[in-house]
Specification:
- The chain is mainly alpha-helical.
- About 85% of the residues lie in helices and about 0% in strands.
- The protein contains 16 helices and no strands.
- It starts with a helix and ends with a helix.
């Protein structure tokens, strides 16, 4: 009994040490994690190219160029759109002060009284310029991380033929090999499906906003695509910029329709399509998904929210095959069938 308590205490100490190390070294750890996950995502493509007898060096170059084009084009588009928004801030500020009394009057008709001064001070265009400026001021660190990540990715693909052999070297039994293969398969599958549903979300958002001729419809669609990778709240956050511009550019009826459209799209994608496609295999409780997002976001910053689910999946699968830490898998899972089999 005493030995068991000592082991549990040691496990807690190890966890605290690991979390502290990850938190302190997040700037260095994050590019490695991002590179690893990009490697897993594009590994099927690399294997496909290698099946045509294309050398590893050419395969690595093709994938590097593909990732670089996607990242650079997205970053260029977001930065140019941000510059355009900043230039048009005086126009939006005038509209903001004109439309604010109408919004207050609309809610007062329904006897809804809010702290309007506080709300207005938070969302007035002048403050939004400050938020955007701060965002671009931090873009330098983000770009450095991206460059480091891309460099790591190309080296991973250059050694892709030996990485799997090195990984298998540390697995002693057939069960451990299957566990490792399952972790990689589930992480790859999660990102592929999430990319598909995020693209669908972005397309539906763009279609809806383009129908209303909303300015920056494509920018808001790109934000919907990117933030959809963050579980639970990402799509919710993505709707705010579009609704803010809609209030300034359109009437209240159109803005309300757009808000309802966002709800319908997010409910269809998040509550129906995502669980239907991947829910059976992930087996993570909704509470655990949200909690993991908060914890990994605190440890690794905003990118930790994007990586929260795959990191938690890896921990869950590893614990499922461990007698000592099997109880952790029980906590993470959401299926009674799995609980019986653990």
């Amino acid at each position: 009994m005493l030995k068991s308590k000592k082991m549990d205490l040691a496990a807690v100490v190890y966890i605290i040490i690991i979390i502290t190390a990850l938190k302190l070294g997040s700037v260095l750890v994050l590019p490695f994690l991002m590179a690893f996950f990009l490697f897993i995502i594009f590994l099927p493509l690399a294997n496909r190219l290698n099946s045509f007898a294309i050398p590893n060096s050419i395969t690595a170059l093709i994938i590097f160029i593909l990732i670089a084009v996607i990242v650079s084009s997205t970053a260029t588009f977001i930065i140019s759109s941000g510059d355009d928004i900043i230039k048009n801030i005086p126009i939006y500020q005038d509209k903001f002060y004109k439309v604010t009394p109408k919004i207050i009057g609309f809610f007062e008709k329904f006897n809804i009284s809010l702290e309007w001064k506080s709300i207005i001070s938070l969302v007035e265009p002048a403050k939004i310029v400050g938020y955007v400026t701060t965002f671009f001021a931090n873009m330098g660190n983000v770009l450095i991380n991206i460059l480091l990540t891309l460099t790591l990715v190309i080296f991973l693909f250059l050694e892709s033929s030996t990485i799997s052999q090195k990984a298998l070297y540390f697995t002693k039994t057939a069960q451990e090999k299957e566990k490792l293969a399952l972790i990689l398969k589930n992480i790859s599958r999660y990102f592929l499906i999430k990319t598909f549903t995020s693209l669908l979300t972005g397309f539906l958002v763009w279609t809806m906003l383009a129908y209303f001729n909303l300015q920056y419809a494509l920018l808001f669609a790109v934000l919907a695509f990117l933030l959809n990778y963050i579980p639970s709240i990402g799509s919710f956050i993505a709707s705010f910029p579009a609704l803010f511009v809609a209030i300034l550019q359109l009437n209240m009826i159109d803005t309300t329709v757009i808000a309802i459209g966002y709800v319908v799209i997010n409910m269809f994608i998040g509550s129906f399509l995502d669980p239907k496609i991947m829910g059976k295999d992930l087996g993570l409780s909704t509470f655990i998904v949200f909690t993991s997002m908060v914890i990994w976001g605190w440890i690794l910053g905003p990118m930790g929210m994007f990586l929260a689910v795959p990191l938690t999946i890896a921990i869950k699968i590893a614990c499922e095959n461990s007698v000592k830490y099997n109880y952790i898998a029980v906590i993470l899972t959401n299926k009674l069938v799995e609980l019986k089999n653990l």
